[in-house]
Amino acid sequence: MAYAYLFKYIIIGDTGVGKSCLLLQFTDKRFQPVHDLTIGVEFGARMITIDGKQIKLQIWDTAGQESFRSITRSYYRGAAGALLVYDITRRDTFNHLTTWLEDARQHSNSNMVIMLIGNKSDLESRREVKKEEGEAFAREHGLIFMETSAKTASNVEEAFINTAKEIYEKIQEGVFDINNEANGIKIGPQHPTTNSPLSSNQGGQHAGGGCC
Amino acid sequence: MFNNVPFSFTDYLLSNNHVNSIIVHKFDFSDEEIMAYYISFLKTLSLKLNNHTVHFFYNEHTNDFALYTEAIKFFNHPESMVRIAVRTITLNVYKVDNQHMLHYIRDKTAVPYFSNLVWFIGSHVIELDKCVQTDEEHKNRGKLSDLVAEHLDHLHYLNDILIINCEFLNDVLTDHLLNRLFLPLYVYSLVSPETRIIFLNVLLLCVLQVFLIIHYQPLVNALADVILNGDLSVFICQPDHASAGGLRRFIKPPESLERSLEMSRHRGRKRTQKRPNYKNLGEEDEERAGAGSGGGELEEGWDDDKIEMVVMEKGKASELTEQNITDEEKTAAATRTHTQRSRPFLDMVYSALDCTNDDYHALFVLCLLYAISHSKGVNRDLLERLQLPVPDQERRSYSMVLVERLIRITSQAALPDGKVRLATLELSCLLLKQSVLSGSHCLIKDVHLACLEELSYMLSSQGEEIFLDMFEDEYRSMTSKPLNVEYLMMDASILLPPTGTPLTGIDFVKRRPCGDVEKTRKAIRVFFMLRSLSLQLQGEPETQLPLTRPEDLIKTDDVLDLNNSDLIACMVVSKDGSQAQRFLAVDVYQMSLVEPETKRLGWGVVKFAGLLQDMQVSGVEDDSRALNIVIHKPSSNPHAKPLPILQANFIFADHIRCIIAKQRLAKGRIQARRMKMQRIAALLDLPVQPSATEVLGFGQTATGSPSGLPFRFYEQSRRAPNDPTASRSVFASVDKVPGFAVAHCVPQHSPSPLSSPSPPSSGSGSTGRCDSVTASTTSFQSPSALAPSLTPASQPTISLLTDSSADTLSVESLTLLPPADSPHLHPCAAAHSLQTPDASIMEDQREAYREREEEPQEEDGSLMDETETDATVKDETTETTELITPTDEGPEGADQQGDDASLGAEMESTTATESVEDTGGAEMHKEPADSPELD
């Protein structure tokens, strides 16, 4: 499918906060309640429209890579947006946000848009983290904030789309270097502006040395 | 498709070999989405690998491991996410402790994969280098930082493989890295500029990154040994390694990874072929690989290392023995070994430490030395033999060559126009401490002194207020953010030639200073670093810094004896509307709000304490009994908006109490700042500086009676004939305190008006008298006041100072203390007195006389104009600005111009009406000042 831009996202946060469920809800519009820690959805893609432009979102789940430093840092760098997820029914997942954020800020490029997401908002009765706390954390660290429920699909679309809007705005402002694919942004093949040799890559397996 | 399927069912599916047929299916990988799903699928599978499930993927009998071999074909895919997935898959595979599988990987895939990987990394470095070399005006920075980050990713990936500690994979990998990449491409290029394809900085960065990231001993130690100890013979073709693999060359693998994987599949299990270019530690290694799987890895690693070293130095056996001799006598080693044998790489490294033109290379060399000395993988003996700095270790000698060069860097950093960046200096201090600390004696006294001179010069060119804030601020930000070499070396911008402009967004410590304020900041930091270095080398503790130590301050809930203290009762209404009855007490550095202690009479419990220096006081418009007080938290980031820790209205019993409180706070603030300035002056040993005698004077007087000073000023003005005006003018000056508190809390605004006056004043041959007047009158008001008075006075000034009238002034006025104003305040406050104009005319005549000698034709104009000025100013000035009028009386129009302008600027920030008047005054002066030139 033709698209104007492709944005790469990553989803980060403690295990069990519903990262995979968010992804599944966004890409497949379904909710899978059985949570198997060992199997996670690894990848998802969906087309959205912003400002009349088709934009493809690629979401790479980073599950299971925490043990390798090289992998963590590469993932952060390759993404234009990150959803930082915590579980509103588990205070510890909220407390770990600082560590996640530090990691993200250290490894990512400085323009990466980070959205803070308090997931499982349907479980109001078991809530341990107040919405205001999430808001305050987001404000303090310059993030966008939203409470979502992967189960009821509440705000899930908005979370992904608002992040995309933010990235899109940054592109319009010229903050992102869109010809540099390392930022997690790719110009679509049909885009009127000339593609850099890198982005018009043939996608072959053996492009030889020197590609980045 | 397999995601979310119950585990046992997955097992079933996998066991039927369907998965493998899916894996080897040739999808259309040019579709990026198919590619992404495919590689994610493989990654998901790899995450499920363990000793049990590996059999579903790895077939021992057919020698098939499609999951792994298919995945690694994408190791250099253009899409970064795919490459990351491939790396994840390989790591997940290596992690599985299955000997058969690992043997398969080593025998069938390790050589092709690693040789291609190494080539890929090497090509990447060359691209990085191209990017640096073609850079113009830092335009490639975005791309460069990606390339550097990518290179770091590679090294981290290699390190992650090595950490898994699958020993025989590590052997293959180490061999390839060392002989195909590190030695031929990085190290060899260091010494041969004519054949060097890669820029020195890129090389140094690449080498030092290896040491920073990888700690695998056999690899790192061998590399360090060549750099520190080796010579070119390492690269001479050795007969027993004459086969293609034995050559240390950076060459493209003969065939693509996919092809070589194909070939090795068809080759069958013949031992001779499995490691065609692996070195001769074969047999022994084989046995070990069979025997020990888990335990004793450390020991084996050590053995490996030995073998590696012997292999490497086989071609230079003679040198090896020579080296052994020198090992015995370590004391004289550094110089002797240096002369005895050639160490081209080490020589190269040392010579790059030269900072005469710039510290472009030096920064990298310092980081390299730091990285080598901190690497866990480098043999301590190797470092000691070369007397390189080893952290936390006893030693009796140090490398003279290195220490000399380090000292040279520090002394160059202390020069006024030194090209050495702060990061470079900090690193060389670090290494210097490491090198000589156990041989404790101070080497750098002279260097230190040079820096002091520089700094006191800087101090004199900056305003008092801003300087203090900068001084404390720099100390805070320096101690809160100690240098991290790893982070420093992640920044691609250091690869480009050092620049001075902050517009590039390069961090302050990684570039040269831009403008006076940054130069001062740099000088302050240089001072801190050299001070800490010299103290540490002398084994003395730091007693003076930081100026504000938390343990010296009054804290909340402290109980104080407040008998005989001045207390003012007030109601504190904070911003959120809460009220509290408190007593306001002003200490030397702090103001505190106390509440009576219930048990002891006359004691109080502190409910709030804040630094006076960070305080702003302003009146409340509709309430004459109230003051608005804001105290900011000192922030380490000058660009961050200061965060108020107290923001409240204080309501006093009546107008008088309110005025008293306001005065006490304002004066306390000035006094607190002045005390700190004195301490800085003492720190800088300012008395030695002839140009800084003024500061010394003010220091002496102030220490004599610190508390009395502001009050003496107050008394002075009260004694003046027209009491109301004088006291009002005092208030006027107090009113201004919050004004420039604002000004320096917003540094991006303040430096320009505040620092601008100093250059013109020093250039225009200011007189001591004029300066001192400006300084003393404005010392309550203007942060820039110090600037003119402290700048080295030019010749004519001295001649004027010898005048009797000026002489009496100079002693006092140079102290910068309010009492110095007295001779001026009196005539000024008594506006009708004719003395002042007379005096100024006398001055003018002298001035004119001096000028006549130089330029006779100007005489009349300047004399007349300047007298006129005085008259005009008299008319124009209102009572509130009377304190400033003495400034105007000074004979030098040009000088006043600057000062007045600065005053005007400050006024603007306080009261609109005042500023109008004052800038009006300043403008008035421009005319006469300019007119002589016009004539």
Automatic annotation (TrEMBL), chain A:
MF annotations from Gene Ontology: GTP binding; GTPase activity
Entry-linked SUPFAM superfamilies: P-loop containing nucleoside triphosphate hydrolases (SSF52540)
Region Disordered, annotated ranges: 186-212
Membrane topology: Lipid-anchor
UniProt xrefs under PROSITE patterns: RAB, RAS, RHO
Biased composition (Polar residues): 191-204
Record flagged with keyword Cell membrane: no
One GO cellular component, as annotated: endoplasmic reticulum membrane
Keyword annotations from UniProtKB, A to Z: ER-Golgi transport, Golgi apparatus, GTP-binding, Lipoprotein, Membrane, Nucleotide-binding, Prenylation, Protein transport, Transport
Location of this chain's protein in the cell: Cytoplasmic vesicle, Secretory vesicle, Acrosome; Endoplasmic reticulum membrane; Golgi apparatus membrane
GO biological process terms, semicolon-separated: protein transport; vesicle-mediated transport
Family the entry assigns: Belongs to the small GTPase superfamily. Rab family.
The protein, known as: RAB2A, member RAS oncogene family
Species: Fundulus heteroclitus (Killifish)
UniProtKB/TrEMBL annotation, chain B:
UniProt KW Nucleotide-binding keyword: no
InterPro entries, sorted: CLEC16A/TT9, CLEC16A/TT9_C, CLEC16A/TT9_N
UniProt biased composition (Acidic residues): 854-869
Keywords: Autophagy
Biased composition (Polar residues): 767-784
FPL domain sequence ranges: 11-94
Domain CLEC16A/TT9 C-terminal intervals: 139-784
Gene Ontology CC terms, in alphabetical order: Golgi apparatus; late endosome
Biased composition (Basic and acidic residues): 843-853
PANTHER family attached to this UniProt entry: PROTEIN CLEC16A
Protein name listed in UniProt: C-type lectin domain containing 16A
Originating organism: Fundulus heteroclitus
